[in-house]
Amino acid sequence: MEIIQWITKYVDLWVLLFYIIIGLLILVNRKKWQVESKFILIHRTQWGIKTINKFADKNREFVKLLGYSAIGIGFVGMLVIIGFLLKGIYELLFVPMAPPTMSLVIPGVQIPGSPVFVPFWYGIIALFIVIIFHEFGHGIVARAYGIPVKSTGLVFFGPLPGAFVEPDEKKITKSPSPVQVSIFASGPFFNAILAAMIALILFLVLNPLMTSMVNPSGVQFTTIQEGQPAAIAGLKADTTYTYINEKEMRDSTALMETLSCSKPGDNITLRSTDSIVTVTLGNNPKGGDKGYMGVMGIKTDYQLKNNSLKIPYEGLVILTTLFEWIFLLSIGIGLANLLPLGPVDGGRMLHTTLVNMKGKENGTKLWAKISWVTLIILVILVFTPIIKSVFFKL
């Protein structure tokens, strides 16, 4: 009974239906799937290889330039993700109430202890687009250097769906180190390109178009952090609050001005159409002398200027939300792949570089040590909030 309650609390119904259907399809076509490392399911195809070859052959020098650019961007990204790991460990040790730095992301599943929830359909569609773009980057850069793509396909890392491009590994290994690193770095680099393209579309097209159709009407919060002042007071996520301390609040400006002048112990009163909530501000877990609510994702709610715009506006909301998730997942997956860890892109970049600098034996030993340290930190950061939430609820 407890298992059923846990599933209904944390798992979207669409997730269960999705995996039941996927499981049945895999079972029916089980001869086309291979099992690797006991928990990885792979279905190899030739889909998309002609497109990869055509694009790379037609734009060979440009693609090579992208590949070399990816090296610098890739190592900068690696430093960024290492910075997040170190920040996470510091906050875990010295700022225990700070929100998690790292979190598993499974569309439609609320990971215990995580402030991030990815809606199922937005997440699945965005994930598919992000992964395809990532793998396309690997494929065209490999092809531009004369390394053939042997296969493409679908993969499941346990419950996590994905896609892959499989260049000829033997030829990659025999290539010069800069070529190898550029191939490994190109996937995350293409994630950065995708994120930049999506950001431009959002800021230059979709957001201005939506803003022209509505008036601001209040403030919402995406996430209310457990155990923090807002949650204790009864503030609710995705509820529109229109007044703060009896002053009209059409957008987040009034809220931010109030918080900027506040201190721990101050009260702020927020009013919606059906509730009044008084929050006693606490101390910021990260320090400072300003009052702290314990909310994430402050956003402005809107009302249509004209009801005749309802259908096109709702369509724009869906499209904009999808684009926002593509942007966030593209950044997240790109950085995660740059972790200096084992077989992921960042790990392979680091291994190739260290072997080139220190020789195969010494380079591999150093790479293994860095990978183990990274893995241990990652496991601690990801699973500590889950364990706290499930077994030691604050």
What class do helices, strands and sheet pairing give? alpha+beta
Along the chain, the helix and strand elements come as HHEEHHHEEHHEHEEHEEEEEHHH
Work out the radius of gyration.
Answer: 24 Å
Q: Outline, from the CA principal axes? A: globular
| Unreliably modeled segments | none
Distance between the termini: 24 Å
Largest sheet: 4 strands, antiparallel
Which whole number gives the mean pLDDT? Answer: 90
Let me know the number of strands: 12
Strand coverage percent: 15-25%
Strand order of the largest sheet: 1-2-3-4
- Summed up, the helix count is 12
Structural domains: how many: 2
Helix content bin? 55-70%
Attribute tags:
4-stranded antiparallel β-sheet; globular; 57% helix; Pdz3 Domain; 394 residues; single chain; alpha+beta
Explain how this protein is built:
The protein has twelve helices and twelve strands. The chain has helices spanning 2-10, 13-28, 49-58, 60-94, 120-144, 169-174, 177-211, 229-233, 252-260, 310-336, 345-358, 360-391; strands at residues 34-36, 40-45, 149-157, 160-167, 214-224, 241-244, 247-248, 267-272, 276-280, 282-283, 291-292, 295-304. The mean pLDDT is 90. The protein is an alpha+beta fold and 394 residues long. 57% of the residues lie in helices and 17% in strands. Strands 1-2-3-4 form a four-stranded antiparallel sheet. It folds into two domains: 31-207 and 328-391, no CATH class; 215-304, PDZ domain (Pdz3 Domain), CATH 2.30.42.10. α3 crosses α5 and α5 packs across α10.
